[in-house]
Design a protein that fits this description.
268 residues; five-stranded mixed sheet; alpha+beta; 49% helix
């Protein structure tokens, strides 16, 4: 085989043209960029400059938006926060509204209690005129004090027949309301010791129960009524005379005034 001789290698002296072409291209691009910057809109550039100045000089906590000069600053409605004055005004309106509602509820309660007082006074007028019954309004409600002598014989807890008709009329008045009723039995401090009533506790409780029974039998819901025997522990007068002891022997019917807080909670 013929062997070919190796081709002689010649050095390339034109490589610098590649670098030169790259340099010229970059230089051309540089001047194009410079030209484009030099022709920027001065008004827009000024707005941009001012915005940057505001952004870097304001406090970091500031939430004010950056806007061009001479333009009104209007925050979106959803980003507007109520001022202290606005909040105070709203709170005052709410308080006034709540106060007015409570005042209206209180007025209605007072009207109910007054109507109840008038109804009881009407049916018990004969006993009131003889001073056997007194009806008063207190913070607890309407309080009816009935002398035990008109209801019971001495040392007994069975109602007298003459008192049944009045108590039925009282039940008719109370049955129209839905307020709690508490019936208390009271005695004087004279001790009692009988097989039926070993002490005044038993006697006072039995008398209150007798009154409650006639009320429930004539239309007053049993769930609204409570019986309390207090013996001689809450006298109206000192037990130092026959007249005062007679005042202390009584049955008290208290019709409790509605509780505003409880009614408001129930409405919710």
């Amino acid at each position: 085989m013929d062997r070919r001789g190796k081709r002689a290698e010649h050095s390339n002296t034109d490589r610098w043209l590649v670098s030169y072409a790259d340099f010229i291209t970059l230089l051309f691009a540089f001047f194009v960029v410079m030209y484009s910057i030099s022709s920027v809109n001065e008004a827009k550039y000024k707005i941009f400059s001012n915005s940057l100045s505001i952004a870097f000089t304001q406090r970091l906590a500031s939430t004010s938006p950056i806007v061009p000069p001479n333009q009104p600053l209007v925050a979106p409605a959803q980003q507007q926060r109520p001022t202290v004055t606005t909040l105070a005004t709203r709170n005052k309106v709410l308080v006034d509204k709540h106060t007015a509602q409570l005042g209206e509820q209180q007025r209605k309660i007072e009207e109910r209690m007054k109507k109840l007082d008038n109804g009881l006074s009407r049916v018990m007028a004969p006993m009131i005129s003889q001073r056997f019954v007194s009806i008063n309004q207190s913070r607890r409600g309407v309080v009816v004090d009935i002398s035990a002598s008109t209801l019971f014989n001495t040392g007994e807890a069975n109602l007298q027949a003459s008192s049944l008709d009045v108590l039925r009329q009282v039940a008719a008045v109370l049955g129209k309301e839905d307020m709690p009723i508490e019936v208390e039995g009271h005695t004087d401090d004279t001790p009692i010791a009988t097989p039926q009533f070993p002490s005044n506790w038993e006697l006072s409780s039995a008398r209150a129960s007798s009154v409650v029974r006639i009320l429930v039998d004539n239309g007053v819901p049993a769930r609204r009524v409570a019986v309390v025997g207090l013996a001689s522990n809450q006298p109206l007068a000192p037990n130092d005379s026959a007249e005062n002891r007679a005042r202390n022997r009584r049955v008290t019917i208290t019709i409790a005034s509605p509780n505003l807080d409880r009614e408001a909670g129930a409405e919710k």
